[in-house]
């Protein structure tokens, strides 16, 4: 029970941290909306709210009728208490129909009794025997006239109605010099606060409802497998960089011949990305630390556009730099991209071999660095067949993988997204495990969880997750991590010669 409660608290803590992070990240939007609402409120106040002016008069209440001139014969504490109690009665007398009609006649204003009732307010001043009458009007002169009329008529009305009492003027009405309302500063501030609350609340609601993978923690929570490496966006000399989406409109390279350069890690890719793939390579080797046999590793993703093909290519290249015999097979016969990314011939390829149109040796191409034997071999997807899943699940496919195990240290298989087609699941039994590529801000929690469930359903081992296109601050091994701890000191040593693709047969395993 305690463990479940702790796990729940961890999830809440992560959600709150993510919410705060989203609010900070979108603070510019919150600021813009808040300022716009403040401006709208200010302009609306200036254009549509009528300024109001106030004029007031104050009266002192005395319930002792025994007075000579201006001096009372006797004033006791009981008289003061009684005077305070009479304030409410005087206010009622003020707002009576007869009193207000007299005020209208005396002030000579064009107002009805009901209109004047809404314009007048009266209340005691700090629970004293003094009360204040305030007149509010859009016309400052009208407000003064009505307040003066009340100051003249009210004492007479009070003394004629309540015997033994009187009301004396303490402060006469004056002409107001500035409007009492609206308050432009107050309304502007209210508009700002409304905009802030609306934008922050909307962003918070969106953050709670949004299930897109934003951080490495999101990956771990939803698939329960470790993040082996976080690969940042890779900068390329050519405009637009790498194409992560295999369903994008890529330039046709049918005329390209072997010998064109292939952009792999070290050849124009930024330092952080290269280090991320080296970290992936190291962790992958530890996954098979106790095994001496060859390994067949599948690479897939939940959705298209997550960078699985580029991950497979650079993983193969990274392993080959250790002197390992590596072969990369493009098993994505629906929308293959390996041949185009490496600038090698598309045919003959895997589909041609599986349909019996060519021999194994004829479809293997060599991709490496000029003058460097530490390189890898490639089998392209070949011609797009109408039945790719039947070919991948055929006995011939099982046989070719078994044969490649005998001559290679690593066989890297690039599969279509599991969330869209089931090709990878058909070959899963012939692999030693899968690497799952998850691109930041692309896949969501539900799809990732379903992808993992599909692999677990066919009893396939998931070696780990490659968190792709990671931005700075999105995880421990994001681009910011490498820039901060390694970039300054080691980046100058990060270089590699140009790549050259040559076609030649695979040699035997040492």
Explain this structure.
With 510 residues, the protein is an alpha/beta fold. It is built from 18 helices and 15 strands. It has helices spanning 2-25, 27-48, 77-94, 97-107, 113-119, 140-161, 184-209, 216-223, 271-287, 308-320, 338-342, 350-354, 360-363, 388-392, 395-407, 423-427, 445-457, 479-490, and strands at residues 53-62, 67-68, 71-72, 120-124, 130-137, 166-171, 227-232, 295-301, 326-330, 364-369, 376-379, 410-414, 433-439, 462-470, 499-502. A 9-stranded mixed sheet has the order 7-14-13-8-12-9-11-10-15, sandwiched between helices. The chain has a 4-stranded antiparallel sheet with strand order 4-5-1-6. Helix 8 (216-223) packs across helix 17 (445-457) and helix 9 (271-287) packs across helix 10 (308-320). The chain is rod-shaped. 40% of the residues are buried. Mean pLDDT is 78; it is low at 1-12, 65-73, 235-263 and 477-510.
């Amino acid at each position: 029970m305690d463990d479940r409660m702790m796990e729940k608290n961890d999830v809440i803590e992560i959600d709150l941290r993510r919410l705060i992070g989203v609010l900070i990240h979108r603070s510019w939007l919150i600021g813009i909306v808040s300022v716009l609402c403040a401006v709208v409120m200010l302009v609306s106040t200036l254009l549509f709210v009528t300024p109001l002016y106030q004029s007031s008069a104050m009266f002192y209440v005395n319930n002792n009728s025994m007075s000579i001139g201006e001096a009372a014969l006797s004033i006791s504490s009981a008289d003061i208490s009684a005077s305070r109690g009479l304030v409410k009665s005087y206010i009622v007398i003020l707002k009576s129909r007869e009193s207000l009609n007299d005020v209208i006649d005396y002030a000579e204003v064009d107002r009805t009794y009901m209109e004047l009732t809404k314009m007048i307010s009266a209340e005691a001043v700090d629970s004293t025997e003094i009360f204040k009458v305030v007149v509010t009007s859009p016309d400052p002169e009208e407000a003064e006239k009505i307040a003066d009329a009340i100051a003249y008529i009210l004492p007479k009305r009070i003394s004629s109605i309540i015997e033994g009492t009187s009301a004396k003027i303490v402060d006469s009405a004056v002409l107001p010099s500035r409007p009492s309302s609206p308050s432009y500063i107050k309304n502007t501030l209210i508009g700002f606060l409304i905009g802030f609350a609306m934008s922050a609340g909307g962003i918070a609601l969106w953050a709670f409802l949004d299930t897109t993978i934003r951080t490495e923690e999101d990956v771990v929570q939803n698939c329960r497998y470790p993040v082996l490496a976080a690969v940042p966006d890779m900068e390329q000399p050519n405009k637009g960089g790498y194409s992560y989406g295999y369903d994008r409109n890529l330039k046709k390279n049918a005329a390209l011949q072997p010998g064109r350069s292939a952009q792999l890690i070290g050849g124009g890719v930024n330092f952080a990305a290269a280090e991320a793939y080296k970290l992936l390579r190291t962790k992958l080797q530890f996954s098979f630390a106790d095994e001496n046999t060859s390994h067949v590793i599948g690479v897939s993703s939940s959705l298209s556009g997550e960078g699985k093909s580029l991950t497979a290519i650079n993983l193969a290249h990274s392993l080959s730099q250790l002197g390992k015999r590596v072969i990369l097979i493009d098993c994505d016969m629906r929308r293959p991209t390996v041949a185009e990314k490496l600038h090698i011939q598309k045919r003959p390829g895997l589909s041609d071999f599986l349909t019996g149109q060519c021999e194994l040796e004829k479809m293997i191409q060599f991709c490496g660095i000029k003058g460097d034997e530490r390189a890898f071999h490639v089998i392209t997807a070949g011609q797009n067949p109408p039945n790719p899943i039947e070919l991948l699940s055929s006995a011939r496919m099982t046989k070719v993988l078994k044969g490649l195990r005998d001559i290679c240290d690593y066989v890297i298989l690039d599969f279509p997204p599991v969330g869209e087609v089931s090709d990878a699941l058909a070959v899963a039994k012939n692999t030693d495990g899968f690497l799952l590529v998850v691109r930041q801000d692309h896949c969501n929690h539900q799809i990732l969880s379903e992808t993992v469930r599909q692999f677990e359903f066919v009893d396939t081992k998931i070696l780990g997750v490659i968190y792709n296109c990671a931005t700075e601050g999105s995880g421990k091994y994001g681009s910011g991590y490498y820039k901060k701890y390694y970039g300054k000191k080691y980046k100058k040593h990060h270089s590699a010669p140009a790549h050259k693709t040559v076609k030649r047969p695979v040699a035997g395993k040492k």
